[in-house]
Amino acid sequence: MTTLDYFYQICRIPRESGNEEGMRQYLLAWAKENGFEGIRDKAGNIIVRTEATPGYENVPYVALQSHMDMVCVKVEGSKHNFLTDPIEVYQDGDFLRAKDTSLGGDNGIGVAMTMALFTDPDVKHGPLEGLFTFSEETGMDGAYNLDGSLIRSKRMLNLDSEEEGIIYIGCAGGIDLVGNMECETSELPVGWETMEIRLSGLKGGHSGGEIHNQRLNAISALARILVSFEDAGIPFRISSLNGGTKRNVIPFSAECSICVPVSLAEKAAQQIQSTYEVIKEENRYEEPGFEIMKRGTERGAQMAERAMDEDISLLIAKALFACPHGVFTYSKAIPGIVETSDNLAIVHLNEGRFSVQISVRSNSDTAKLFLVNRIRVILESFGVQCEIGNGYPAWNPDPDSALARFCAEAYESITGKKPVITAIHAGLECSVINSKCPGLDSVSIGPEMYDIHSTGERLSISSTNRTYDFVKHLLGIIR
Q1: pTM value?
Q2: What does the alpha-carbon distance between residue 118 and residue 31 come to, in Å, rounded to a whole number?
Q3: What residues make up the domain containing 336?
Q4: Is 5 a catalytic site residue?
């Protein structure tokens, strides 16, 4: 079977982060069927080993590493159930896409490539380990709980990056902040009505890989609209507020219900529209699909029974408006690479409790802590109680990596092109796995993918085939 054959099979298995049991069983059954050694460690990672092909018995172990889970997002109105339904994959020219959902090329294609390399009779290799981790997308749980003593390899190819011809030798570390505030609600005064606002049509995408493209954050845009009410002299009360989907996805939609005096409803509608048009014009190049839906009770909005008081409503709007999002600094060591950024990821109001989640990334652990604490101070000044998670470390680039040099020379020998050796702003499990396996030399490679963690995700078929051939070549010459 080819890489794409395996990928199609994987796409039929539900595998949202935290729901990888089907993938575990699939991998263990595949290992047994092919006579490989299959191991499930205590945490739930899967390790598969195969012996060397004849003549390669003295070559040291090489690990091929990928993660089983995927980020699951879908278009508005989709009835897709990620717990039970397969991803509907279709071909669009050179690309694979998914109908109405994210594709899961991150990192299903890495898993599929590993499986194909293990079973391809034309691949020459020393002893191989396939390391398949779980819940990478929600905090690298599999990597953090990996029993490093089970790994025999001293060289590892991580197959979880998305740009062909680039060899990554470092990545950003990350840390999350969660803020909460108890917000009492009260019944609406007489003479107030409800208005619903929904922002949609934004590109979203991976909060590490796409953050430098300055894509609009739907939560930030919604906060800007609400804060503009103060200058316009329009009091408002928030009854519901939701935005974002995942900690590592740039929010592509956000919505809220607000209550305003009936006498100011028309002025409020005009204020919403005018602020939206300003934001849309500012982002016309990157976000041409940006849309707004607004309606009052006369157009079908459901009348709210309770809402937060005016002062608390404005306070929350200002807290979100003040919260930074996007690139904070660029790297001074590697030109053109983002060093530190944050993603205002998720906001929610439920039964009088306001919550917000923010993800910070940085290739510098000190800069990461600086930014997350700066955001903490901002939010706490508005009365939001904040808790900072433990995070995961940056993978500091090693310019003397023997494996990186070997891979670069091999790539140039078969393509005639020099690869780029650099670091990535997204998080990669190498940072954690290296700490679990002393002496492990790692690089990360992968085929061309675009708009991962979004419904626009697409995977290049030709690039996948070229990347497979490159790894096949590597395994045949590595000593």
Answers
A1: 0.83
A2: 10
A3: 175-388
A4: no
